Amino acid sequence: xxxxxxxxxxxxxxxxxxxxxxxLSQFGVAFNEVRVGLFKPDTAATLQSWSPxxxxxxxxxxxxxxxxxxxxxxxxxxxxxxxxxxxxxxPERALARAYxxxxxxxxxxxxxxxxMNVCFRRQVPVTPSLAxxxxxxxxxxxxxxxRSGGPFLFGAFGIVDAMYAPVALRLHSYxxxxxxxxxxxxxxxxxxxxxxxxxAAGRQETDVIDEDEYDWLNRPR
Length: 221
Known about the structure:
The chain is α+β, with helices and mostly antiparallel strands. The chain has helices at residues 15-26, 43-48, 69-79, 90-105, 108-113, 128-148, 159-174, 180-190, 193-204, and strands at 4-8, 32-35, 58-61, 64-67. It has 2 domains: 4-79, Glutaredoxin, CATH 3.40.30.10; 90-204, Glutathione S-transferase Yfyf (Class Pi), Chain A, domain 2 (Up-down Bundle), CATH 1.20.1050.10.
């Protein structure tokens, strides 16, 4: 049995958990999955036994423990993927890392107003702050795909695509007007067997996290 364990939250909602899960799964890395239901009375105590931050995700590889999605991706790239998670050329790697880091630290309007929810699919209004985030995302994706030729941002699937996968799911859920290039990229991600498996599992979950459900009458919570 593999010594690799990935601790994640709800597949219906947990965008940060999805990123390393998708990366490892799509590259065929075997790991033990521990799913912890979030925002329950025992969640904090359970997570403290796994993660020093009390948050998901966290990767345990023997005596090594790595938390934070991007840190896990970097560790996996060095330890498990033979460097295939990033583009081969140094300039492209630098650019891919910059885009991944921008996703990691930015797009606060998108995160707060359109929570990831794999069961939600309905067109909803776009606020001015959301429109700004969406425009930047489409610019990034358009530039990358024009340069790489697709189907993924730097040609082959990699860490930067895993980082943006929850964004693609949000756009699929909330259905804003999108360019043909953006829609095609979302379609390529949705066709990944690993992402299909994640979505299917999320749709089977029965837990409901109110703050990650959209207020259908007024605004996102």
